[in-house]
Amino acid sequence: xxxxxxxxxxxxxxxxxxxxxxxxxxxxxxxxxxxxxxxxxxxxxxxxxxxxxxxxxxxxxxxxxxxxxxxxxxxxxxxxxxxxxxxxxxxxxxxxxxxxxxxxxxxxxxxxxxxxxxxxxxxxxxxxxxxxxxxxxxxxxxxxxxxxxxxxxxxxxxxxxxxxxxxxxxxxxxxxxxxxxxxxxxxxxxxxxxxxxxxxxxxxxxxxxxxxxxxxxxxxxxxxxxxxxxxxxxxxxxxxxxxxxxxxxxxxxxxxxxxxxxxxxxxxxxxxxxxxxxxxxxxxxxxxxxxxxxxxxxxxxxxxxxxxxxxxxxxxxxxxxxxxxxxxxxxxxxxxxxxxxxxxxxxxxxxxxxxxxxxxxxxxxxxxxxxxxxxxxxxxxxxxxxxxxxxxxxxxxxxxxxxxxxxxxxxxxxxxxxxxxxxxxxxxxxxxxxxxxxxxxxxxxxxxxxxxxxxxxxxxxxxxxxxxxxxxxxxxxxxxxxxxxxxxxxxxxxxxxxxxxxxxxxxxxxxxxxxxxxxxxxxxx
Length: 525
Ligand code: G4P
Prior knowledge:
This protein has about 525 residues and is α+β, with helices and mostly antiparallel strands. It is built from 14 helices and 33 strands. Strands 28-25-27-26-30-31-29-32 form an 8-stranded antiparallel beta sheet. Helix 11 packs across helix 12 (about 440-455). The chain is globular, with a radius of gyration of 24 Å. Keywords: Cytoplasm, GTP-binding, Nucleotide-binding, Protein biosynthesis.
């Protein structure tokens, strides 16, 4: 096997999907501890809820910190793991969704006391677009959680994915004793208060081992009974079904107690796919092809006081990046020499010499790179599957100085090209409506309009509940649709027809009435 192939097949690129407070930050910290990127847990900066929202510089500073933790690469179990951060809390935005298009697998973290929550449902929908394989971690076993069987049922019912428990919890809360690993036939015993370290393993081989009864008393008999029930009612792990996104292996543990996280990581590096082939407009590109290709999935402000530029995050799809190499910016038809791509090790950003398919590199960007752009070694192709997502929050944008309407429109369109927000121009009014996936984006846009376009804007509430991009093969019918629904029809920043619905009921009715019109929740760049 060539060095290129073995490097690429060794890559595991994943992201965490979870609802705020389920434990993503805590688990990231423990994962980095196992990846030997940090000496002791407690150094990953919390990224939640601490924005001084209206202060742009403060926001840049906060986001600057998260640039360094946007991608974390570390060795684990003989593999090279890339963990991509999915902004949550106020930072939640289209970037969160689009990051999921740049990974090959995902880790779903669920708070065992709460079960499946809203944000997780939404993020799972995005994973479904590419049938991304999902590993599940049921967190917070050191608390009084819900019945584990009930939790699995909920995942199966709500998220429509089969569950295959790989580990099973013994007790919960103060009585949490550890987990039984179904595939290894071993019990791992939990000891509280050691969450900041990698603990010595306390293992008992075999389920019928009398040592187990000595260690956990009557809970051992309960465990044996419960497992019989569980095995009867749940699915066995099946690698192919996992790779097809149809089944998720489930691990139980506590991120805070750093228990079970390593079982999950072991499963992830063993089963999760190495970089997968990617679809372009004219062919599929296998990861192990010699020539470099990649696409941009995120653009982020860079917190370098010397250069206040932006960083374009490129997922390498094939071949390798080498310092100084020439890349073709396909959309602009221009070749550029790249000498200073960035990589993002935990808490530290450094220049790198080479990177392989599956890795992420950061390119400095002064406005010429957009979300969805493809880079190659000269081939004319464009990667697919890097969509815009229908916004879920809307505001009408009003100017303090009405004379600056042109500058406002230009600013909004350019910012929407960067990909974090969408702008809509209703056909029946002169309104400008801004749509976003996360609420912080409105503050970001207002601050950037002021700084970069010298326009000050105010937001008003607007009665739009959701938006869909609309298309129809029958031109005549499409014209009629647009005429009859003129109050709801708008053009987006890229001049695509959209339907702005005041309520979900309205949207459902419109979809029923116009079966030949396609209403899309995502739109390709
Ligand atoms: P997030 O990134 O998904 O939003 O979650 P985060 O890791 O910040 O965890 C949210 C809260 O849940 C934190 O407590 C964290 O300590 C706690 N937590 C995470 N994993 C576990 C676990 O396994 N068991 C228990 N009992 N708690 C857990 P907090 O009080 O909100 O924040 P902090 O002040 O401790 O940082």
